[in-house]
Amino acid sequence: MATTSSPALADAARAVLRIALGAVFFAHGWQKFFEYTIPGAQGAFAQMGVPAAQVAAPIAAGLELVGGALLIVGLLTRVAATLLAVEMLGALFLVHVSAGMFVEKGGMELVLLLAAGAAAVALVGPGRISLGAAIFGRSSGRLAALAA
Fold first, then answer.
1. pLDDT digits (tens, 9 = 90+) for 115-133
2. Which of 66, 73, 74, 137 is 20 to 30 Å apart from 24, CA to CA?
């Protein structure tokens, strides 16, 4: 077994992280839209003390659904991951940190991992196993870097 990481393994690791993270975010967005419904999510956000819950809930639902899908396919990855990381940091500090670590008590473990994973994807990008790489290839412009 090699002791150094190959570019192919690094791209595979990016894809695994990006797709798993995207699936979790997509599922949470879907849940807010179609299981809880937006009015239900707004009520839950208000009950948790989220400021502007009437606006925050549909934005969070849309960001998680669309952002999750973008992470899965690897398109607009850095933008989607950055927005999702910021959203999770908001959830962390507004709702979960006061409950401690563990999720069964409303704690921060899930949102902390989601924030860290999204931040990692935002930093490293989608890798070569992504729709962004297929479309933009090795384009070096800033727009291509954001779109990938």
1. 999 999 999 999 999 999 9
2. 137
